Task: inverse folding
């Protein structure tokens, strides 16, 4: 059995480093994710503890899929009674490209195959939902819902992902949903960055708990809050993930993991993290989000050049997610701001490392001499992760 952890393409190495620490075994980097050996309990543990993963998929296996008929026959052979509860909803998503071109047809056939498998094993039969809208060729996965007949119980819906690749289809269960949605970030600011992306960036910059961190343009406080949660061993996924409701999941395993996670928390009132933003709304959003996350963050509502009257004993890391310039004209307008940021930081934190998210290397160079580590998409904009020294 294997687990596939999904991340934003370009950030695989940060995720791989984290998974090796959590699982204590070798992992394999793939485009857009990391694969490792593991069982259902491992999948639930990663949903509980992974800060970098966007999703955790539990891989059921690969089946031949040279045609719709072959795919349907292969899926029907699997024992779905070990996966589905009576009355449980299943969402079938299809992605990738293979010999089969029509994703909506794949979703329909897989649903019928699951129904036939359950019927053959004398289990309650799933009922196909209403026909959904078809998707364009090569587009994001369409969804089709199936619901097993039987007494309705409070089982979380399951998502089955079918990924096509030439003559093969990989079948995976979404173990935990969208993991970047920790639940604390209800107050937002401009240009927010996802929680798991923030941790990946901190890891790539070499930050670890205990190293001083300065977040002078905090926005919604994502970098500071994620760093504080990491430093205090606050598990990011405390809600039971769907995988814990599978018929084959061991009784009380989730409760044991959850109890261990809660006992591991070591909240401290003082952390080596300084946070600021000149916008009062951003400071308020950061405080509200931090409170929901269960960590103590007190941002200073001042401009970057005046924010920190006292500094931490360093050197440490400064993290920046400044306004983006999408067009060349925007970059020219933003150049003075980036120059000001660099001057203010060099005056207050000389010798510290700096990591920033920025779409343009020339703009990043206004802050410090920078090296581009990787590029990825943030909010549909291609940005780079740059590191340098003040």
Result:
């Amino acid at each position: 059995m294997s687990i596939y952890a999904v991340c934003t393409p370009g950030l695989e190495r940060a995720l791989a480093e984290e998974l090796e620490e959590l699982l204590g075994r070798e992992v394999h980097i793939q485009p857009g994710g990391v694969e490792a050996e593991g069982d259902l309990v491992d999948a639930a543990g990663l949903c509980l503890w992974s800060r970098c993963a966007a999703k955790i998929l539990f891989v059921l296996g690969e089946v031949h899929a040279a045609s719709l008929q072959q795919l349907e026959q292969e899926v029907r052979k699997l024992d779905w009674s070990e996966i589905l509860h009576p009355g449980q909803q299943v969402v079938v998503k299809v992605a990738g490209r293979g010999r089969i071109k029509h994703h909506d047809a794949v979703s329909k056939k897989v649903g019928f195959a699951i129904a036939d498998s359950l019927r053959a094993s004398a289990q309650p039969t799933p009922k196909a939902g209403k026909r959904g809208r078809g998707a364009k060729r090569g587009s994001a996965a369409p969804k089709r819902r199936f619901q097993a007949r039987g007494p309705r119980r409070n089982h979380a819906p399951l998502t089955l992902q079918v990924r096509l690749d030439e003559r093969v289809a990989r079948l995976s269960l979404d173990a935990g949903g969208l993991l970047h949605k920790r639940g604390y970030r209800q107050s937002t600011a401009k240009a927010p960055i996802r929680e798991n992306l923030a941790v990946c960036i901190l890891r790539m910059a070499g930050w670890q708990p205990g190293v001083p961190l300065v977040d002078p343009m905090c926005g919604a406080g994502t970098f500071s809050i994620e760093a504080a949660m990491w430093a205090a061993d606050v598990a990011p996924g405390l809600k039971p993930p769907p995988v814990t409701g599978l018929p084959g999941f061991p009784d009380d395993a989730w409760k044991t993991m959850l109890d261990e996670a809660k006992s591991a928390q070591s909240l401290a009132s003082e952390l080596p993290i300084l946070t600021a933003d000149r916008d009062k709304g951003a400071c308020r959003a950061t405080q509200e989000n931090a409170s929901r996350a269960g960590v103590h963050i007190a941002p200073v509502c001042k401009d970057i050049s005046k924010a920190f009257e006292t500094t931490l004993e360093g050197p440490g890391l400064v993290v920046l997610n400044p306004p983006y310039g999408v067009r060349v004209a925007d970059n020219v307008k933003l150049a003075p701001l980036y120059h000001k940021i660099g001057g203010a930081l060099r005056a207050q934190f000389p010798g510290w490392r700096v990591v920033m998210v920025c779409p343009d290397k020339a703009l990043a160079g206004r802050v410090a001499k920078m090296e581009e580590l990787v590029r990825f998409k943030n909010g549909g904009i291609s940005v780079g992760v740059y590191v340098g020294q003040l």
